[in-house]
């Protein structure tokens, strides 16, 4: 019956009669537009296109594009996949997202291909909402082999984290780690840090937050480690793994470009090296952000460029969300002599609650306008962010 309705729908050989439960798409006002669209694609995976629209909720354009990656002429197999996802808590919207991202999933075997991964995640303590989030973020992982991909990578990560929960967190936060198959890189790169004396806790911390760092080819990764050592960073410090992360993520050309940006603001090679030793992530900032931040600090706040080179962590903050609103408070306090310029790094670095207590509420008597000034700047920042 389902097949008949699709053929009728596509070729117009019979009068279409369907209840809203069977073909809700046909009762939608947009159906006439979609019908014309499908008719033009009737010779190109027409059944798959109509199925993707009617059963998966894809737009005609998305359905036609998705149909290039999947082949089926009857609804049995895709129906079984959709039923499987529905039975495991996926909403219609989530199923639509999954199919749009990875249409090949529709021709999977729910029992042989999908179920083992769900059971594996359940056995490791992944809740249903977390599992749904994982699949929606990167449905392609369901096509990866359980024995050769999922289990080995899970074991490598757990060996370091000593916890199923932390391992699951990393996989959910960075699901493509299962797609890209980092097995040839993970163990050698972890070992490269270990043999250089990097503490297990530091290796785990950087892998927990930035597992992509470890997807670098082992030879290149070792070169990066040696380069970081040559810059004078000590393997025992957490800055060492942050430096490895920064160098691993930047090409030599990009590195040189950023060096030149800082030099245009008067930094010497020694200034840049010292800043990198202190806070390696400042080199990951984009060239536009570096320019915007330095321009604000130097030309708006009137700070010396050298002041920033000694406090490179300031460059990591959001200009609109943190620096501009807080600097409005800082300027008032500096003019009144209530704070000194040397305290500005702590001024921008402290958490929101502590900032309000230490620099706003504390000086309400001397500067009663501070709270309104700060909240107005924050509101303006949010408005600009939403535009």
Explain what this protein looks like in three dimensions:
- Helix 3 packs across helix 4.
- The chain has helices at 2-11, 31-40, 46-54, 60-66, 76-87, 92-101, 110-123, 128-137, 146-161, 164-173, 176-179, 183-195, 200-209, 218-230, 238-249, 252-264, 269-278, 287-300, 305-309, 319-335, 344-349, 352-360, 370-386.
- Among the domains are: 47-110, no CATH class; 318-386.
- The longest helix is centred in the last third of the chain and has 17 residues, at 319-335.
- It is built from 23 helices and no strands.
- The protein is an all-alpha fold.
- It is 65% helix and 0% strand.
Major β-sheet profile: none
As a percent range, the share of strand residues is under 5%
- Using only C-alpha atoms, the radius of gyration works out to 28 Å
Low-confidence stretches: 1-44
**Amino- and carboxy-terminal Cα gap:** 49 Å
Helicity level, as a percent range? 55-70%
Overall morphology = globular
Structural class label: mainly alpha
How many beta-strand segments?
0
- Give the count of helical stretches: 23
* Helix-strand pattern: HHHHHHHHHHHHHHHHHHHHHHH
Mean of the pLDDT scores?
A: 85
């Amino acid at each position: 019956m389902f097949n008949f309705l699709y053929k009728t729908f596509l070729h117009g050989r019979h009068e279409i009669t369907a209840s809203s439960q069977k073909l809700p798409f046909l009762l939608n006002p947009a159906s006439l537009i979609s019908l014309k669209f499908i008719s033009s694609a009737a010779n190109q995976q027409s059944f798959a296109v109509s199925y993707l629209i009617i059963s998966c909720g894809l737009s005609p354009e998305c359905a036609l594009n998705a149909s290039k990656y999947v082949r089926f002429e009857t609804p049995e197999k895709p129906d079984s996949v959709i039923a499987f996802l529905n039975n495991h808590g996926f909403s219609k919207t989530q199923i639509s997202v999954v199919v749009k991202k990875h249409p090949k999933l529709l021709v999977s075997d729910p029992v042989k291909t999908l179920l083992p991964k769900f059971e594996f995640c359940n056995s490791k303590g992944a809740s249903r909402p977390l599992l749904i989030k994982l699949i929606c973020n990167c449905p392609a992982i369901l096509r990866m082999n359980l024995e050769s991909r999922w289990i080995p990578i899970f074991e490598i990560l757990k060996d370091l984290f000593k916890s199923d929960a932390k391992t699951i967190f990393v996989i959910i936060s960075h699901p493509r780690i299962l797609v890209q198959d980092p097995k040839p890189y993970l163990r050698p790169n972890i070992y490269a840090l270990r043999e250089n004396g990097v503490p297990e806790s530091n290796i785990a911390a950087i892998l927990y937050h930035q597992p992509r760092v470890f997807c670098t080819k082992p030879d290149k990764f070792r070169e990066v480690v040696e380069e970081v050592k040559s810059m004078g960073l000590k393997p025992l410090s957490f800055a060492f793994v942050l430096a490895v992360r920064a160098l691993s993520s930047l090409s030599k050309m990009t590195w040189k470009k950023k060096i030149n940006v800082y030099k245009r603001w008067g930094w010497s090679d020694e200034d840049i090296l010292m800043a990198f030793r202190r806070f390696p992530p400042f080199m990951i900032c984009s060239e536009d952000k570096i320019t915007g931040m330095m321009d604000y600090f130097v030309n708006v706040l009137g700070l010396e460029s050298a002041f920033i080179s000694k406090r490179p962590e300031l460059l990591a903050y959001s200009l609109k969300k943190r620096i501009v609103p807080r600097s409005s408070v800082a300027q008032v306090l500096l003019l009144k002599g209530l704070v000194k310029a040397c305290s500005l790094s702590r001024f921008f670095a402290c958490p929101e609650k502590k900032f309000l207590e230490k620099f706003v509420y504390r000086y309400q008597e001397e500067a009663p306008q501070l709270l309104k000034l700060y909240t107005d700047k924050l509101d303006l920042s949010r408005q600009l962010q939403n535009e």
